[in-house]
Amino acid sequence: MRLGLSSERIEGGVKQVKNVPERKRGRPRRGAEQNAEGLLEAAMETFAANGFEQTSLRAIAATAGVDVALISYRYGSKMGLWQAIVTEVARETVELLEAAIARAQDRPQAERVDFISSEVVDVIWRRTHFSRIMFSEIIQSRDEERKDFIEEALAKPFLEVVYPFVQSSLEAAGQKRPFDIKLGMMASIALAGLLSSTREFTGRFVEVARHDEMLQYQVKQIIKSMWTGPANNAVPTLQAAGTKGS
User: Would you say 52 and 137 are in contact if contact means Cβ atoms under 8 Å apart?
Assistant: First the structure.
């Protein structure tokens, strides 16, 4: 599925997010629409390479091969374009995972978490540039508005779709994990996102990372071992963990 060019508010499985800038300013010059299909992809690549603050609309326009007026007309500002990227990826992610959960219902209970974790890796692998954007925003950025947008548009809808399925599947299969389920989900996402977006660097030290399909398969196996491997220890409570660390 290609990224669309609309920055409309998310509907259906994803929460609506307020304060998306209106699209305004002058219309793009004639013929610019023909080059607009790759605009969000080009913007994603540019944001991933340079970060939000160091990315200009002119640089995005040059990468996409469109007039900068097209971006202003469609999204209003750099922030509007950035929000459109997060919004569209969130919509796509939720749709893909809802479909995956529907397919998982036909599988034995003991295989469902393994199946959905594999599907999550596939979804992340589709958008390696987006993973770089997320790491940059969450780790380096001090902009709380963009972090809040990621939380509301992407993180919460993802958890609302996947967490109940993972939790109920583990309980039905009698599989207890020695860690908090939501924390395990976030760790799985972080691992897949990090390794998919840093494979060139990782490939300097790990030969398997030089082969994309093999790396993707290996990441699935690592995450699978988290969810379906032996677990003899109970999840420690916050009180117990605090006592131990004091």
Answer: yes
Burial of 229 (0-12, 13-18, 19+ CB in 10 A): exposed
The Cα angle at residue 176 between residues 168 and 97, in degrees rounded to 5? 40
Q: Which two tokens stand for residue 181?
A: 């389920």
Contact between residue 216 and residue 121 where contact means Cβ atoms under 8 Å apart:
yes
Q: Which residue has the tokens 């540019």?
A: 46
* pLDDT given at position 47: 96
pLDDT at 151: 96
Cα separation, 140 vs 226, in Å, equals 28
* Distance spanning both ends of the chain, measured CA to CA: 50
142 class by beta-carbon count within 10 Å (0-12 exposed, 13-18 middle, 19+ buried): exposed
Taking 70 as the pLDDT cut, the residues of the chain under it are: 1-37, 229-246
Closest CA to 194 of 182, 180, 181, 206: 206
pLDDT at residue 20 in the model: 43
Classify burial at 51, counting beta carbons within 10 Å of its beta carbon; exposed 0-12, middle 13-18, buried 19 or more: middle
| Amino acid identity, position 7 | S
CA distances from residue 34 to 9, 71, 190 in whole angstroms, order as listed: 24, 14, 36
Length of the chain: 246
CB atoms inside a 10 Å sphere around CB 209: 20
Torsion-angle region of residue 25: left (phi > 0), alpha (psi -120 to 50) or beta? left
Provide the H-helix boundaries in 65-211.
68-75, 78-104, 109-126, 128-135, 144-150, 156-173, 181-197, 199-202
Give the amino acid at 40. L
